Amino acid sequence: MQTLTNKPFPDEFRQSYDKLFSQTAPLFTVVGDLSLKLSYKTNALCFTKERVYAFNTENGTEPETIEYSEIEKTQVKRMYGNAAFFAEMKNGEKRILSRFTFAVASIADAASDFINAVNEKGYSDELIYPVENAYMH
Q1: CB 35, CB 41: distance < 8 Å
Q2: Model confidence over 62-73: pLDDT tens digits?
Q3: 89: Cα separation from own chain's centroid
Q4: Which of 42, 51, 92, 100 could share a disulfide with 32, CB 3.0–4.6 Å?
Q5: Strand, helix or coil at 104?
Q6: For residues 41 and 87, what is the distance between their CA atoms, to the nearest angstrom?
């Protein structure tokens, strides 16, 4: 299966991406357009069956890896002029994994729903269908 993506994967993270996914590609990626500090820079979230990899310029070129089993719930919050992908961790910590403009928000919503469904039901191929639909619109 080809990896679903809303934009080409950012060049600044390409070497880490290629090394990390040399054997198995992620199911889908969400490429954002804002840094965690709200400047116009690309970032990316890569989703597999078990974890999400957060590539942000604030972390350098290596991604932060988060197991779905560590996450209580995810959601996309829309704010004035931007949106953020939030993860509420099982240890009570609340984290922002990515920021983006509203152009990316609907795809990020589908990604959030995907993680929440995997945590609720376990992974199955059917959970990718709503994500595919989000990429088509």
Answers
A1: yes
A2: 999 999 999 999
A3: 15
A4: 100
A5: helix
A6: 21
> Is-contact 71 64, C-beta < 8 A?
no
DSSP string, 49-101: SSEEEEE-GGGTTSPEEEEGGGEEEEEEEEETTEEEEEEEETTS-EEEEEEE-
pLDDT at 2 over 90: no
DSSP conformational letter for 8: P
pTM: 0.95
- DSSP 8-state code for residue 9: P
* Whole-Å CA distances, 92 to 47, 53, 87, 104: 22, 20, 10, 27
